[in-house]
Amino acid sequence: MKLFAKYRILLPVVSLAVLLAATFYMQPRAMSYFGINLLFNLAVPIALATVAQMMIIMVNDIDLSLGAFVSLVACVTATFLNDSPMLGVLILLALVLCYAALGAVIHALDLPAIVVTLGMSFVWGGLALFILPSPGGASPGWLRTLMTVKPPYIPMAVCASVIIAVVTHLLVIRSGIGTVLRGVGGNARSVQRAGWPVVRLKALAYGLAGLFGVFAGMALVGLTTSADANIALRYTLLSIAGVILGGGEFTGGKVSPVGAVIGALTLTLAASFLSFLRLSPDWQIGAQGAILILVLTARLLFTRRDAQA
Amino acid sequence: MTKTQMLLGAAGLAMIAGGAMADTSGKRIALSNNYAGNSWRQAMLQTFEEVGAQAVEAGVVGAADAYTTSENQATEQAAQLQNMILQGYDAIILNAASPTALNGAVEEACNAGVTVVSFDGIVTAPCAWRIAVDFKAMGKEQVEYLATRLPEGGNLLEIRGLAGVFVDDEIHAGIEEGVAENSQFEIVGSVHGDWAQDVAQKAVAGVLPSLPDVVGVVTQGGDGYGAAQAFKAAGRDTPLIVLGNRQDEMQWWADQRDANGYETLSLSIAPGVASLAFWVAQQILDGAEVPKDLTVPFLKVTQDTLDEALETTPEGSVANTVYSLDDAKAVISGAM
To answer: What molecular functions are annotated in GO for this chain (chain A) (predicted)?
Structure first.
């Protein structure tokens, strides 16, 4: 079974395929253009958030503020971006820069990212409540059109997932700067000694995370048509689970963008599958956890076996 | 649910089964719920399950299934709604986590030909039906009741709910309106009781020393018992407190009545509103013309019905009522 170790991506793909087959068996109606779009369209913002989280995990940090950040972006999108697009774009740009600055500060002062981002989650949450004290706002028309577009043959959700996966794969795995960024996660000191400015690299990784976080929030508003200050709080944990499920590791440098997108799709599908099973809500969270543990155990078993061989 | 209510429900069902309305017998209705963590929601789910099971047995609808999201999050509920579309439900009744964040999923459902009826936690999507409570009328009715009991008027204390919540604003507006129309009353104090007895008791106890004689207390439910305790602790006469159907409030009322003939009124929204939403959805599926915005009557407990209400309300719960098809028809025709 060297196959699984050689192709890190294989396990996430197999998990998704198995789950998809089970879902189609349970609910044949889902096996259609319309059905697949309904199953996966809410996975698009989660996939974007997972990619954002992956950027942070890639440089050996973790982001506990992502859910609150995506909620804040959703609030900005549903208010400023809709009412005065210029101001909205400026605010979103400022948010991305904030993220980049955060990365630089975390590295320069040698702060633990887990603490800084946990603190920032309250800042983002507070700002979101400030902008939208009660649920409301409206999605900009073009965003709604973009998220409900019906391309021929392949549903929007699938198209978007493929595009996200390909773009991030090129960016993180194929490009030169992506390789250096993964190097920062793997061994920051070597990268520094090789003459790279690590502060700037970390700022870049965080900035990219902020950018994908912004995309996630905008995609979410395009789907829901309006926002709520608590709309995406679950994304923090979902995105971390998505990265790990997709073959990433907490040790830094070992990430897979395609896997992360597939991980996000798998998590979304798992929730729907459990709902089709008519499992009581008391058990659903536990069952979702069980699926996660199952996949991770499988991965561990395969890596162990390869290590012995 | 009481025996009488059950009998009434059964009678209602027998009527339908005998009638000509078999159109919806193959239709499937789902309940989408975002939270099950308090006694009100538990009572709501139970009512839906009982009414749904009876309706399925009588062949009125094909299925009535309840789903609750594992976490109280709008994104989870949106996914749940989309799953219901895939499962092929004909109608979804919905107690929403957010009035706006589910609109995208609700529109998907409407486009797929699914009837969406929201209640209690309503959604603003234009294609959905809304069964809202007229909280404003609930506030006004309290003052009007006080006017019949205390024609000479006097000072009132107002206990409000959780600040910033739409329900609190509505009930407060109703009370203001009532006081404006009955000028013999004056609100001399206002505190936030957060719909909880302990919070209300503390808040009232804090404000009482600064207040002149108070003849009546207007409330929002879940706060009357606390207010009564605060008056007792301060050594003041118990004013006329309007209650909110909680079991502890009604128990206190009954004890007072037995001891000194205390008389008051209790009103609140019944968790059984889920059964009303169920019948409204059934009527829409049946082809009935139903306005998009409906108002649910609130549940009143009076001196005469106190014992009955107390008997049927489990300890720590809320007085409930189960709506029948006829109630739904009455609500619909009332809104036409």
So the answer is: transmembrane transporter activity
Supply the ipTM of this predicted assembly. 0.82
Domains with residue ranges and CATH for chain A: 6-300 (1.10.3470)
Question: What domain range is B65 assigned to?
Answer: 3-120+270-297+320-335
Three-state DSSP class for A32?
A: coil
The C-alpha atoms of residue A242 and residue A248 are separated, in whole angstroms, by 9
Q: Which residues in chain A touch residue B82, judged by CB atoms under 8 angstroms apart?
A: 38-39, 41-42, 272
Inter-chain touch B166–A134, beta carbons under 8 Å: yes
**Residues B101 and B56 grouped into a single domain:** yes
Residues B134 and B126: their CA atoms lie apart, in Å, by: 19
Give residue-wise pLDDT tens across range B198-228. Answer: 889 999 999 999 999 999 999 988 788 999 9
Domain count, chain B: 2
pLDDT single digits (tens) A196-248? 999 999 999 999 999 999 999 999 999 988 888 888 888 998 999 999 888 88
Chain A partners within 8 Å of B45 (Cβ): none
Min Cα separation B131/chain A (Å): 19
Q: Is B31 left (phi over 0), alpha (psi -120 to 50) or beta?
A: beta
Residue B98 lies in a domain: yes
A70 CB neighbours in chain B (<8 A) are none
Backbone CA torsion sign across A271, A272, A273, A277: positive
Q: Which carries the bigger pLDDT value, residue A160 or residue B331?
A: A160
User: What is the CATH number for B165?
Assistant: 3.40.50.2300
Answer yes or no: is B305 within a domain: no
Residue B151 forms part of a structural domain: yes
Q: Are residues B235 and B279 in the same domain?
A: no
Q: Which candidate in B67, B73, B75, B166 is best for mutational testing of the A interface (most A CBs within 10 A)?
A: B75
Q: Are residues B154 and B204 in the same domain?
A: yes
- Residue B293 CA to residue A21 CA, distance in Å, equals 42
Mind listing the pLDDT tens digit for each residue in A117-140?
999 999 999 999 899 877 788 899
Give which of B125, B48, B87 is closest to B280, Cα–Cα. Answer: B48
